[in-house]
Amino acid sequence: MTCRPALSHRLTQLVTVLTCVSAVWFSTSCDATNQNETEPHALEPAIKSPPPRFVPYEVLVKFKDGISQERIASILKDTRTDVIAETQQGRLYHVRIVDNRSVESTITQLTSYQEVEYAEPNSRYETQK
Questions:
Q1: Per the confidence metrics, is the pTM higher than 0.85?
Q2: E strands along 22-105, which residues?
Q3: Of 69, 128, 57, the residue nearest 95 (C-alpha)
Q4: All domains of the chain, ordered by start, with CATH?
């Protein structure tokens, strides 16, 4: 009758293994069913505002103080842009790209000049109704 304690021990091991396997299977199957669900993040607003839109082929360029009008005209000509408007005593220019280059590549080219303080897309904003 030495078989009985060994059988009891084996059954206990089997029940333990089955319980562990069931727990692992249950937890992974729950994760798998929830992977496709998207819950809003607690810090995200319920309604997202649309990203700012940019006017195609237009850039705003600000030059540093002390740059001559001749040098500014030369840079704008080199970057193939035409002046639409000029403000801030000849330091801020609203320009149009005269070829089919992207706004991003034009900004990269403009900011490569040490005389340019910054260049950015001409953003279009709308007020909320």
A1: no
A2: 53-63, 81-87, 92-97
A3: 57
A4: 53-123 (3.30.70.80)
